[in-house]
Design a protein that fits this description.
With about 190 residues, the protein is α+β, with helices and mostly antiparallel strands. It has helices spanning about 50, 120-160, 165-190, and strands at about 5-10, 15-20, 25, 30-35, 40-45, 55, 60-65, 70-75, 85-90, 95-105. The chain has 3 helices and 10 strands, in the order βββββαβββββαα. The mean pLDDT is about 80.
Length: about 190
């Protein structure tokens, strides 16, 4: 979804033009949302030469009905270069004006979707991902270790309770179980 800058019209007095921000920095197309708080009005947009070289608004003479919102897209040309420019917004045949300074950055190179991510959201996800990973790794590690411990304990008990020859065989099997469990833990989970 494109970035949106709201511009209030007729909020405190007739023909008033009040953008919510005096600057905008973007690397993609954006929208000017004209929110009219009073009677119908005509809005004129003028892009300076630098911004006009890389951007095309869907309209420069915009009629905004009373108590309504009208959206005007400002489309950046594909493979645009970075520029700094401005948009002059005027009403009342130029009687009231406001300027929005626009910095156009390089377009996205990865071709991915344009999604704004708040830094605090990324931090919270990282913390949750680490704790989830640790819990799942612990669960997967515990099962084979428990099986190996039980196998070794049973084999040891059998070795102690039987004759020497059979005890040697059972002890060898216990050793193989331990080596197998260790191999699984070291190489089987990668």
């Amino acid at each position: 979804m494109p970035e949106t800058l709201t511009v209030h019209l007729n909020r405190s007095e007739p023909r008033e033009v009040a953008p919510e921000a005096a600057t905008l920095e973007t690397g993609r197309s954006f929208v000017l949302a004209f929110e009219n708080h009073g009677g119908p009005t005509h809005v004129h947009l003028h892009l300076d030469d630098a911004l006009d070289a890389v951007a095309r608004p869907t309209g420069t003479q915009v009629y905004v009905e009373g108590d309504s919102t009208r959206r005007v897209e400002v489309n950046l040309l594909p493979d645009h270069s970075p520029v700094k420019g401005y948009i002059d917004i005027s009403t009342g045949y130029g009687a009231e004006k406001a300027r929005v300074n626009v910095t156009v950055t390089d377009p996205r190179k990865d071709g991915g979707a344009d999604v704004a991510i708040d830094d605090s959201l990324a931090e919270k996800q990282t913390e949750n991902a680490e704790s989830t990973t640790s819990a799942s790794e612990t669960a997967e590690t515990t099962k084979p270790v428990a099986v190996a411990v039980v196998g070794v304990a049973v084999a040891t008990a059998l070795a102690l309770s039987v004759s020497e020859g059979l005890g040697l065989v059972v002890g060898g099997l216990a050793l193989l179980c331990g080596v197998g469990a260790a191999g699984y833990l070291l190489y089987g989970q990668s």
